[in-house]
Specification:
This protein is an alpha+beta fold. Helix content is about 30%, strand content about 40%. It has helices at about 10-20, 20-35; strands at about 5-10, 45, 50-55, 60-65, 70-80. Strand 3 and strand 4 form a beta hairpin. The N and C termini lie far apart (about 30 Å).
Amino acid sequence: MSSYRIAYAPAAEASLHAMDAPTRESFAKALTVVARDPYAAGSLPIQGDRDHRQAVIGPAIAVYYVSGPDVMTVTVVRIVH
């Protein structure tokens, strides 16, 4: 998938901003890799829903939804770190 977008729900954005700068930058970089192929990268579906997923990204677990079809959008709804 060549076109993708990353969005954050308010709670996930708050968790992202609570990280120290090096951790936040590392997380954002790793999330870009996940967003390019959100069904891979070691992610797992949540409760059998292919588009509701979780993945370990650096020192955190990200819970996200995948939507499309024109532009793949990965919406991070929760970050646990």
